[in-house]
From TrEMBL:
The modification N6-(pyridoxal phosphate)lysine is found at residue 233. GO terms for molecular function: histidine decarboxylase activity; pyridoxal phosphate binding. Gene3D superfamilies: Type I PLP-dependent aspartate aminotransferase-like (Major domain). HAMAP family: Pyridoxal_decarbox. The gene is hdc. Keywords: Decarboxylase, Lyase, Pyridoxal phosphate. The lineage of its organism: Bacteria, Pseudomonadati, Pseudomonadota, Gammaproteobacteria, Enterobacterales. Its cofactor is pyridoxal 5'-phosphate. One of its GO terms (biological process) is carboxylic acid metabolic process. Its EC number is 4.1.1.22. This is Histidine decarboxylase. Substrate binds at residue 120. It comes from Izhakiella capsodis. The keyword Lyase applies.
Amino acid sequence: MTLSIKDQNKLDAFWAYCVKNQYFNLGYPESADFDYTILERFMRFSINNCGDWAEYCNYLLNSFQFEKEVMEFFARLFHIPFNESWGYVTNGGTEGNMFGCYLGRELFPDGTLYYSKDTHYSVAKIVKLLRIKSRLVESQPNGEIDYDDLIKKIQADNEQHPIIFANIGTTVRGAIDNIEIIQQRIEQIGIPRDEYYLHADAALSGMILPFVDEPQPFTFADGIDSIGVSGHKMIGSPIPCGIVVAKRKNVDRISVEIDYISAHDKTITGSRNGHTPLMMWEAIRSRSLSDWQRRIKHSLEMAQYAVDRFRVAGIDAWRNKNSITVVFPCPSEDVWKKHCLATSGDVAHLIATAHHLDTSKIDRLIDDVIADLNAQAA
Ligand SMILES: *Cc1c(COP(=O)(O)O)cnc(C)c1O
């Protein structure tokens, strides 16, 4: 099995392209400052984590022992006793959200899922796949859910078992729904705590909030029932992945015994990536708490630097508290394309991911945006 010279050249060209563009990303939340070369030797094995890492599996090439330690880490991070939690390494934030919504729907089969207009596009798809009744809720200008509209819609629907999809860091504006207010307001209208479900979509901010001085409420101690985080965003990974953590008692309700794999099936997919748990394990084992704090502080400072520079130039840029996402008026197409920015309506954003060690890329972008917006205004 060998490749032709032509095909080898094609791969070499792609290699050079990847090296050149390794740190290009300023518009999306993917961090590029990772190094998993220590794991490269495992690429020769068909590692498959199908089933539950907590149980025996007939398929010997699994990385369950590493996945277990990853889940221990996240249970601690999200303030739930490990033995009361269950979760796994997913294919990404979307799968984690789907798992959370699935648990909510199994708990409350007739419940309606409420999510704000700023929610990630994956949720509309999840709602269709799971056939959950759903309601779109208005957002506030900063991207946070409109609490009045949420309560108004729950009451209008006469919904007794709402399933709340809370954003812990929205995709476009980095906004955090206040789950303390959500819980207070729901309980004020007479729905007790065990009659509704609360999932936290923390794709990006789930790895920011645990390491800041004044986090908004987002953990199990604060009242969530499940949480999804992306592994390829704040943590960084060459293969998209994620983490989901839920309450064990809710997961047990969906668990099915499978004789073929001699294990319990409770995950969305069958075969599961066995390499990404190794990467997540390496990422958490190689950094101390203060390493994470320093890395996140750096990103937050870079984001604030960008806000300040824009503002000095008279451009209305801003960011939400504890967010590395900087929102500003959308520049012309040639500017946002040149810098691979994500745009939404009349805004664009940059995300101060951790691989931006200095301000050079951010400065180039800001220079272009300032020149462009000033030219538009003139
Ligand atoms: C990125 C993102 C997702 C989806 O995560 P994937 O890892 O891309 O599947 C979900 N929610 C939010 C808020 C996101 O930013």
